[in-house]
Amino acid sequence: MDFLDPKKKRAHRIRLFIGYGLMAVALAMATLILVFASYGYDIDRANGGIIQNGLVIVDAHPEAANIEVNGMNKGTTTNRLILPAGQYTVNLTRSGYRSWNHAVSLEGSSIEQLVYPFLFPQQLVTKTLQTYNAIPTLASESPDRHWLVVNLPETPGAFQVVDLNNKQNPATTVSLPTDAFTTAAGAHTFEAVEWSTDNVHLLLKHSFTGGSEFIIFDRDTPANSVNLNKVFPNQPFTIVNLRDKKADQFYLYNAPDGNLFTADTKNKSPTLVQSHVQQFKSYQADTLLYVLTPPAGTTTSEVHYVQSGNDYILRTLPVASKYLMDMAKFNNHFYVVVGSPTDGHNYVYQDPLSAYTHKPAQAPRPFRVLIEPQAQYLSFSAIARFIAVQSGSSFAVYDAETGRQFHYDTKLNLTPDQKATWMDGHRLMFTSGDTIVIFDFDGTNLQKLSPSNASFTPFFDRDYTALFSLAPQTNAADKLQLLRTELKVLPPSSSQ
Fold first, then answer.
1. pLDDT at 5
2. Residue 11: pLDDT above 80?
3. Residue-by-residue DSSP string for 20-81
């Protein structure tokens, strides 16, 4: 029997070991190949050399588009592109739309996500929805991009509420009750301060001959609108902000003495938060930034960061008449930005509370500095991924997802103190020369669109299929019209 023969048993054992060894080598090589493949390594079929690939993910709105990479067709935006590391120009095209292009520096094993491109129509289809016999002082869109509120200046306390999703009968005229605002003789102006997240209540500042007041306007039931100066008659204040975007909770600030209070319409008893405040910015219910009024003769001001009732000194800034401050959350991180136009430095902090609660506690350090001389405005994009600092037509932008920074000048003419706003999570916009201009966060793909009055921000419907703007009427610059511009190319047979 073979299994009793020592020589045959030894030969069989050797064959098994050799087989196991070959299997181990094959498994190791397969694992090595998979590891290298996971890092993007591949064989160049042209010359047999080793290359490292990256992945490019592309999408387009409002419709899918064709992709060209360095002039070569790569299918449509449903494809994922595996490309060797290198420099590329990605161009998106679709019939009836303007092209979109972007330079990509692709690193090996990296993923470049171009999921934000927006293609605008080549030919803009615009129609007039409403006309106004005077220039309104207020036009504001609800956070859900469903409602537009426009005041009618020829009738104090009257507003037009426009349903941006209704093409047939979009506008309704409503009025504040006479006990909700001062009906003094003379000029009246209304200013939108901010919306509540319920998309129903809008905080207004009403200025009239002899004073000003703050009103919670209920666009759904105007009779329920509330005059906050009557709710808190014994508390002087010059500025009001919603606390946590709630229509019944507020920050009340009085500039002459710098007193900052919290208040709500239920107990009607304001609570002092801090005295000698020069400027403040709130976030949700328990987070606050404020700058203390500097003592006479000093050159710096303290910026304080308040979280859940705990007050910390964030940093000092050069004294200025106005500071840049904002906060937002992105990808499970909390970003705080503070800056002074005096030195043009804007400091970006990531999760500053972790430094204060560290054992031992330490002062947080900024991990980015956006430099923009004489900066006027600071803002986060709609998804909080981008931080933009603006000085006139010049911008410094930080991308919190990739860690990249951009600095550019659009070279466009703007009215004094005109602020760029975010169209969405990736595009900025303003009006230049009575025309809406929209461009990507990095300053590329600048597009000129519909007419607009520079005093009013452009508006969009929920799905960004239409752009709305207040523009001068033809041959009547002192009168405005509400325009609707289609952002999705309509079939020739579609009714406008």
1. 65
2. no
3. HHHHHHHHHHHHHHHHHHHTTEEE-TTT--EEEEEEEEE--BSS--EEEETTEEEEETT-EE
